[in-house]
Amino acid sequence: xxxxxxxxxxxxxxxxxLRLSCLAxxxxxxxxxxGWFRQVPGKEREFVGSIKWSxxxxxxxxxxxxxxxxxxxxxxxxxxxxxxxxxxxxxxxYYCATRPVTQSNYSNWGQGTQVTVSS
Length: 119
Prior knowledge:
The chain is an all-beta fold. It is 0% helix and 50% strand. β4 (32-39) and β5 (46-52) form a beta hairpin.
């Protein structure tokens, strides 16, 4: 059974940095994407970025490109979301999820971790 769990959220001032972690378990993820999403109450969940586990190729939304970096540690089965130059509009609950490379939808969502950017 695939499980993912996010950690690393917290309160940070504008311009600051945070690194989120997504620990995945239950199988090999060599043929998976790991995606990061965020959601603000009352709004739809927003795609932040993703990484292809086998090649470490990454994709980003326009709103975070150049500020956020996704990486992964295969030995630890963990994906990371390094967030720099944070803005108040980055405040949200951040989730990770997995997607087989042959499918279009993400599943196996974590419980989320709150990121608050405020002075």
